[in-house]
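For consistency, the fold was encoded as tokens, as this record shows:
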Amino acid sequence: MGTAARTPEGAVEVAPGVHWIGAFDPDLRIFDIILRTANGTSYHAYAVRGSGGVAVIDTVKEEFADEFFRRLESVASYDEIRVIVLNHLEPDHTGALPELLRRAPQARLYISTRARSMLKGLLGGDSLTYTAVTTGDSLSLGDRNLQFLQTPYLHWPDTQCTYLPEAGILFSGDLFGCHFCDRRLFDDVVGDFRFSFDYYYAHIMRPFGAYVREALALIDPLPIRLIAPAHGPVLRGEPRRHLERYRVLSAPSRYGGQEPTLLVFYISAYGNTRHMAEAVAAGAESAGGVRVSLYDLEGSEVAPFVDLIEGADGIVIGSPTINGDAVKPVWDLLSSLAVVGVRGKLGAAFGSFGWSGEAVAMIEDRLRGLKLRVPVKGVRAKLVPTADELAECTALGEAMAQHLTGRNEAKSIDMAALA
């Protein structure tokens, strides 16, 4: 397809009566602290014209508001704007909203039902009037309609998509986006952005794979000619190819077979924590019904383990205590788990120590902070583990296997002892 029609101010017609009115940020190199951007990013907003007025879908980061308003003014007057839709309340989507409301006071604001509690904190929402919408709700622009799809946690609780059925356009918010700045705008004419697309998914959407699959189920039945995300190329070439890529990326990652999987990680200064790790793994293996893997963190990259953990059912982590802390490779592994869905998995800890032995409790706290369940108390051994302490490690592995297979004995509580 050729380049789209542009006004002198740079608005881009993405479909008849639908214009891109966003901004480019080519010099950005780090987004939200954690994402690297090799060639910057873009902030997308759109103007949709119907016979009953104009809708503005999202705005831009505040520093780029002047560009946004110049482009908006090139395709609509402020008194025509009847609707403002926010698919997501994060500042890079809402930075120009206060000024837009001042210039178009008659416009009605539409947000997802889950965004209501966030409005005050992000935008000082006490004085804002709005309509909260959810899946199945729609509004009329005369000869055109906007339909709403609630797609929470992609990647904030408030996120939604907006669909324009008459044109087959999905305004998808952060979904199907990426940090890739190219002024040619459309996927079929920009440079190769596949790495940026997958990288964005891995760092933004991956922890919410179950919600991605729910969103795909909502979107799949829709006739889609174009996907208009909040960042990166506008997807008009083969929009369903990007849905299929999300389907692949969000598929549950599991090792072959039906057995639950337990991963035992360790790092050992003098071999003591290693012996404990071997006992944990042997105990889990002896319990049966669980596929057990044992890994030494010292000689390995963290990244491949993140993929393994995403597909596993439980993890056990062993670390010595050095200077009152677990060692750095353990923290590197745990911090990497923020990008995968680990909520509800089982976790446990163990380790040898010389003086104080804080590492085990610290690892357990971090596992709980990541929303793993920690059903078995960790094992600590001072210096060289004794036979009894190794037996505790074996019992830890057995107990984890029993929890993973649902064979753990229900605990009975003596109510008299609690009195």
In short: The longest helix spans residues 387-405. The first strand starts at residue 12 and ends at 15.
